[in-house]
Amino acid sequence: QVQLVESGGGLVQAGGSLRLSCAASGSIFVINAMGWYRQPPGQQRELVATITRGGSTNYADSVKGRFTISRDIAKNTMYLQMNSLKPEDTAVYYCNTAWLTTEFWGQGTQVTVSS
Predict the structure, then answer these.
(1) How far is CA 5 from CA 56, 96, 108, 115, in A?
(2) Cβ-count burial of 28 within 10 angstroms (0-12 exposed, 13-18 middle, 19+ buried)?
(3) Angle at CA 45, nearest 5°, toward 81 and 79?
(4) DSSP character string of 76-91
(5) For residue range 15-52, what is the model confidence (pLDDT) as tens digits?
(6) Whole-number pLDDT of residue 30
(7) Are 30 and 16 in contact (CB under 8 A)?
(8) How far apart are CA 31 and CA 100, in angstroms?
(9) 54 CB burial (10 A radius; 0-12, 13-18, 19+)
(10) How many Å apart are CA 40 and CA 48, to the nearest integer?
């Protein structure tokens, strides 16, 4: 089992920044890739960004150039630096990883961007 705990969400004005953190615990030796997803109000959950253990990254087109995903292997923590935030970034942000066919999710952290 892997436990994921997100933190760092909040209310910010458009153009502002936030940094989300995801702390992993449990059977962390099985973790390779990790990712951030988000679920805007009334919409389906969508991929934001992913990062492999080797540091390769992938971003949704909507956040490229504004968000940066990173990972501190020694601290078992993943981050999402979000700059130039827009009202459409408002969502619950979730941390995710997987082992074989099992997916692990955090409880989510709310990000609200006011215009």
Answers:
(1) 22, 10, 8, 28
(2) middle
(3) 20
(4) TEEEEEE-S--GGG-E
(5) 999 999 999 988 777 788 999 999 999 999 999 999 99
(6) 73
(7) no
(8) 10
(9) exposed
(10) 12
